[in-house]
Amino acid sequence: MPLSNAAVAEPPAQTASSATTNIYQPVPPESLEQAGLTNEMVDALIFKYLMNVGSAPGAKIASTLALPHPLVVERLTDLKKQQLLGYVGNANMGDFTYTLTEAGRGRARQFMEESMYFGAAPVPLDAYCKAVAAQSITNEKPGPDQLRNAFSDLLINERMFSTLGPAINSGRGLFLYGPPGNGKTSIAERITRCFGSEIYIPYAIHIDGFIVKLFDPEIHERIPLPKSSIFKTAAVDERWVRIKRPTVVVGGELTMDQLEIRWNPTTRVSEASMQLKSNCGTLVIDDFGRQRMNPFELLNRWIVPLEKRFDFLALANGVKIQVPFDQLLIFSTNLEPKDLVDDAFLRRIPYKIHVDNPSEEEYRKLMQMMCDFLGIKYDDALVTKLIDKHYAQTGRPFRCCQPRDLVMLSKNYCEYNKIPVHLDEETLDYAVSVYFTVMEGT
After folding, report:
1. Angstrom distance (rounded) from CA 358 to CA 356
2. Strands 210-213 and 204-207
């Protein structure tokens, strides 16, 4: 099933249509009880924030905690009565600027010893679980239109579409395997687009006294809330952040501890596992088989979650908690799956999709698309010479990434020599000479 990768020729798509319209939206709480918080939890965040900044207006404190202003003002007033906070001046519109008293600083130090986290107030675990269920990829059943839109910047033949489509639609695990350089990772990264465009996740979750940070700016792409007055009535709980459905890619650097909740003994704050961060999206185990742990050990970790759609994670005190396992798990590898694991494991991953080398026709299409993208004149006769000289005579196989790389190297050659960017035998010979020298046989 040959596949050609045209991500090399066009920029990544900025948007993709949803299989269904996302209707989940967390509403602002009207009380701390409705928010799943206690007075002490909110007070701790206030104390730790003021310990770090010195003083701040009530509106700024409420914004930092991502809670409605009236709920925070209620706590500030109570703490002022207890002489744990004091005023240092008026702020805008009847607000006050608050600071810690000596007794308040003592209380803040106690809270800092328990956890150094401050920021958006955490969301209870059960609220997070309900949000995952409401936004689950299993609620989405993408069809051909969603797939074509999601893969609009890749060149994929019809046979690949007919195989890939049902695998994605199932929402279950799959293997992408085949020679390197043919777009397995590019395919995996775009699969998430098939399941709708956006979701809400909390910045942090509280579980049995522990705060677990979930939002990760290195992984999650924030979508700014609209500023139009049309949306002003659609208030959102600001403890939640709107993001694109996540695609989490981990490669050879993956270790088993990344699949667990990680406790930082210095800050006494926990970090969500990779599968929690990828919920409602896609988790890609790239270059599978080259991780630091044995493939059997890694796959064994997924057996129960793949079947049950939930996972068990341990907190720092050893208590196990049940959390949603709601993502499409994709194993991308250059190796044969049967050489990595036995049949019992392969049965757990129902779809095994071979991403093969492109045909000569597809190679030419990729070369033309890359030229079009860079504004370079495409010459099919020149490409024929390239194929005869550097592929047919050497027995070198086509790879989907090669048109992109050879054209870019030719472009760099022209720019360095201060000549118009173009393709000819000289520029392509140079590109081949530097590109394939250390890649013979690949």
Report:
1. 6
2. antiparallel
* Region for residue 154 given its phi and psi (left: phi exceeds 0; alpha: psi -120 to 50; beta: otherwise): beta
Task: Report yes or no: 409 and 434 within 8 Å, Cβ to Cβ.
Answer: yes
**CA angle at residue 106 from 100 to 107, to 5 degrees?**
80
Collect all residues with Cβ–Cβ distance below 8 Å to 245 and sequence separation of at least 6: 137, 192, 193, 195, 196, 197, 198, 199, 280, 281, 282
CA–CA dist 328, 140 (Å, integer): 12
What is the per-residue pLDDT for 289?
76
Burial class for 31, CB neighbours closer than 10 Å (0-12, 13-18, 19+): exposed
- Tell me the residue ranges of DSSP E strands in 272-405: 281-285, 310-314, 320-324, 327-333, 351-354
Other CB atoms closer than 10 Å to residue 91's CB: what's the count?
16
Take residue 268 and report the two structure tokens written for it. 């006494």
- Among 51, 117, 53, which residue's Cα sits nearest to residue 266? 117
**Joined tokens for residue 421:** 């960017």
Spell 365-402 as b/e; 16+ CB within 10 A means b.
Answer: bbbbbbbeeeebeebeebbeebbeebbeeeebebbbbb
Rounded distance between C-alpha atoms, residue 423 and residue 438, angstroms: 23
Residue 182, burial from CB neighbour count under 10 angstroms (0-12, 13-18, 19+): buried
Under-50 pLDDT residues of the chain: 1-21, 228-233, 439-442
CA distances to 269, 276, 311 from 316, rounded to whole Å, are 10, 16, 16
Q: What share of the chain is helix, strand, coil (3-state, %, to 5)?
A: 40, 15, 40
Residue 321 tokens read as 């908690």
Measured CA to CA in angstroms, residue 107 lies from 9, 76, 209, 386 at distances of 59, 14, 18, 73
CA angle 97, 99, 104 (to 5 degrees): 150
Q: In what order do the strands lie in the sheet with 96-100?
A: 55-57, 96-100, 85-90
The amino acid occupying position 49 is: Y
Amino acid identity for residue 259 in this structure: L
CA distance 379 to 5: 20
Is 247 within 8 Å of 193 (Cβ atoms)? no
Domain annotation for the chain: domains and CATH numbers: 39-119 (1.10.10.10), 127-354 (3.40.50.300), 360-435 (no CATH)
Question: For residues 55 and 88, is the Cβ–Cβ distance under 8 A?
Answer: yes
Q: What is the pLDDT of residues 182-240, one digit of tens each?
A: 888 888 878 888 887 799 999 999 998 899 999 999 999 999 876 544 434 458 999 99
pTM score, whole prediction? 0.83
